Amino acid sequence: MPITLSSRSVRRTALAGAAATLSIALAACSASFDAQTQKPYQAAEGTNADSGSLHVRNMLVLADADGKGELHTVIVNDGLEDDTLVKISQAPAGTPDGQAGGDQPALVTFSEIKTPLDLKAGTSTLLPPATGTETDSGEASGDPITVTGGKPGQVVNVTITFGKAAPITSYIPVLSDDYYSPGPLGDQ
After folding, report:
1. Contact 70, 142 (CB under 8 A)
2. Is the pTM of this model over 0.70?
3. Least confidently predicted of 15-29, 47-61, 70-84, 104-118
4. Of 71, 64, 63, which Cα lies nearest the Cα of 87?
5. Quick check: bond before 128 cis, omega within 30?
6. What is the pLDDT of residues 36-86, one digit of tens each?
7. Half-sphere exposure of residue 16, counting CA atoms within 13 Å on the CB side?
8. Which residues contact 114 (CB under 8 A, 6 or more apart)?
9. Are strands 109-110 and 54-63 parallel, antiparallel or unpaired?
10. Most Cβ neighbours (<10 Å): which of 2, 41, 96, 99?
11. 26 — alpha (psi -120 to 50), left (phi > 0) or beta?
């Protein structure tokens, strides 16, 4: 005996099929090439910026409540030519950099780099330098870059100047100087 469906059952089956097809199509839209998991993101607190073969990674300031601190970053030179870090300074007001600023402090000063810091090709340079770090020639690799005026919770628009590569202008965050120094387990 053949099975026959009423017109009501046919409509219900057609609606259920259409709903299943629509839900699959909508799910596929959210998994396109622009899906959130396919977009690069910065998993660190600091700022990343690039100028040619120089890559500034996780740049931030660690400062106390009075606004005295140090600049922390790693600069990677993945090019074939050596370069130098010449200067880091607060960018002039209104300098465009493509980012939205937050609570920009009025005046932030960075200590002068007395001798341009070597950024050898194929290496990375840590700032502040590790204590006792020396170059191939036996010289100290540089003093920490001190920062005055940026308080925790603010961002500073800075210009990073190199010997050969184009300058970089970007916002960097100011975090508390004990940000990376959790207390002993017994104090929690």
Report:
1. no
2. no
3. 15-29
4. 71
5. yes
6. 666 666 677 899 999 999 999 999 999 999 999 999 999 999 999 999 999
7. 6
8. 143
9. unpaired
10. 99
11. alpha
